[in-house]
Amino acid sequence: MDIIAKIATAIAMIAVVVIVFFIVSELIRRNVFNKSFRPTIEICGISFLWMAFMGIIPLYHSGGLMRLDFLISRSKGTARDIMVLLNKLFSLMLGVIMVIAFNAQYPFVSTRFYSTFAMKIPYTVQYVPMAIAGGFMALDALRELIEWCARVFGRKTEGEEAKAC
Prior knowledge:
Elements: H1 2-33, H2 40-61, H3 69-74, H4 77-109, H5 124-153, H6 158-164
Helix pairs in contact: 1-2, 2-5, 4-5
C-alpha cells in the first residue's frame, strides 16, 4: 500500500505540472501569438481529475483526509471503538461506491470521444482515476477493519492475562 501511495503521489504531482504547463502556455499563446490550442481545456480537465483522485490515495493512506478525528481523539473505550469502526466502514463503502460508479458509467464513457484531440481518446480516461482511488480506499479500509477487529476482539481481559502468566 505504501508503494501505491507513493506512485499516486507522483501521478498527482505530474498532473499538477501538466495543468500549470498548459495554462501558462495557453496564456502566452493567446496573449503573445493571438492563437489558441483547442485541447487545452480538456487536457486540464483530465489532469485535474487525475490530480484530485490520485491525491486521495496518499491522503487516505496517511490519515490526512478530513474526518471526525476531533471526536475520536476525545472519546475513550467502547465509544471510541464504535466511532473508529464507523469511520472505516464509511471509507470502505465510499471506495466500493466509487468503483461501482465507474463500472456503471463505463458503457457510456467508453463510447464517447474528445472532439478536440486528433486521436480518438475516450472519456474513460478521466474516470479511471476514480476507480483506482476507490479501489485503493476500499482495500485499505478493509485492511484497517481487519486490524481493528484483531485489536478489539483479540483483547484479553485482566483475568485471562493473569491465567496466561
